[in-house]
Amino acid sequence: MREQITDALKGHESDYIEIHLEQSQSTGMVYQGNRLEEIGRTSVRGGNVRALVRGSWGFASFDGFAGLREKVALAVMEARLAGGGDAWFSPAEPVMDKVSWSPRKYASSVMLASKKQLLDNYNDIILSSPSIQSSAINYRDVQRTTIFANSEGSYIEQEKPDLSLRITAIASGAGKVRQAGLSLGSRGDFTEIEGLDDQVRNVARRAEALLYAPQLKGGEYTVILDPVLAGVFTHEAFGHLSESDFVYQNKELRQLMALGRRFGDKGLNIVDDATIPELRGSYKYDDEGTPGARTYLIHEGILVGRLHSRETASRMSEAPTGNARAINYLFPPIVRMTNTFIEPGGSSFADMLSEIKEGVYVKDWYGGMTSLEMFTFSSGEAYMIRNGKVEELLSSLVLTGNVFTTLANIDAIGDDLEMNQGGGCGKGGQSPLPVSNGSPHIRIQHCLVGGK
């Protein structure tokens, strides 16, 4: 295959060419209540070619590996027909490497019947609770092998396994419907979703308890976010603003995200890091063959960096960060996050609580949206704080505000960093891309909380 790829790259009138080939096997299961809606295994084999000619891109995706030279010629012709553009690449040294990954228990090696038996058990646990109306379970694992080669001389083979599981319990009673969920993921390690009986029972109990939880009076509160919600906030409200294709294309965002601007206290550090072992967003090389990196976005409260592909780095005269990613061979790579988190500080959770006379402790999340610097998130779980103690469960509530004001209002950062590997990231029609996000507990002053 290597000789075939090398030959396909030769002899074309272009400034740059890259070939991506991919082979994958995946398993998916979907439950709705007591019905198994979907179950199956799929195998996929295909690739794409990107070509750059006089500043314009051409792109061709295809199934199978035959006729590579013709596919390259098609991408080159598309780039030429597009006419001159302003796209270009930052320079990079060629890389030749083969990257493998060995989880404790490959999900792809587990029999389909065994996977179904495990999920049947979790579904039965949820549905056995008296107030549970329904359930939803979504499971997917994929074993993916990719080959990347370009006209600069790079040739990289990588294994990219992934696994994701979302379990939701839906309760009804007292004229209400409430739900609670659990999201997990791993780099293809099946052991991460085994032995969850107690956690699944707790999901059902939380959904039932929410039926009778009182609603908070809306207003400004001192709020503590748990590591899950704080990580989601970091990813959704701030991380996407650090993706430089957004920044480059939006004049308003370029002004908002000017390097050197202060966004928080000296203790605030936000990082995107593809090099951390065993996290879903980690890899050795991105989909342009650039090594994955640890990139400070905010350091000691100051905006110091952003995420780049080779193209956006060239456009903005900055260094590539190894953040060009595609969900599969049907798409070209775009700038995406990897593992994005707030670094730990020096406060304990108990110390954060002790200084609050009346506030709210918010855990997990149910949904949300962002629009430039504005955000809205719905909690998965929330509790009243009174005189330094976590008290009664509250009905699901909404946090809203300006991300920059909120970052500035963080006055305590915990010492208990946790990474959340559930879910996935969506952007540009490519979803769900494997990522992780995390944070310690953080305390925010003057946070606007929606309630009655």
Commentary on this structure:
By secondary structure, the protein is an alpha+beta fold. It folds into two domains: 2-210, PmbA/TldD superfamily (PmbA/TldD fold, 2-Layer Sandwich); 219-450, no CATH class. 21% of the residues lie in helices and 41% in strands. The protein has ten helices and 25 strands. It has helices at residues 2-9, 68-81, 112-127, 197-210, 227-238, 244-249, 251-256, 310-315, 349-354, 403-408, and strands at 16-32, 35-53, 56-63, 96-99, 132-150, 155-159, 162-173, 176-186, 219-225, 270-273, 294-299, 302-303, 324-325, 334-335, 339-342, 358-371, 374-386, 389-394, 398-402, 410-413, 418-420, 425-427, 430-433, 436-439, 442-450. A hairpin with a 2-residue loop joins β16 and β17 (374-386). α1 (2-9) runs parallel beside α2 and α3 (112-127) packs parallel to α4 (197-210).
Structural features:
10 helices, 452 residues, PmbA/TldD fold, globular, 8-stranded mixed beta sheet, single chain, 2 domains
Question: Count the strands?
Answer: 25
Instruction: Please report the number of helical segments.
Output: 10
Helix content range: 10-25%
Mean pLDDT: 95
Count the domains.
Answer: 2
Radius of gyration: 24 Å
Measured between the Cα atoms of the first and last residue, the distance is 63 Å
* Proportion of residues in extended strands: 35-45%
From the spread of the alpha carbons, the general shape counts as globular
Briefly note the structural class of the backbone.
alpha+beta
For the biggest sheet, the summary is:
8 strands, mixed
Poorly predicted spans: none
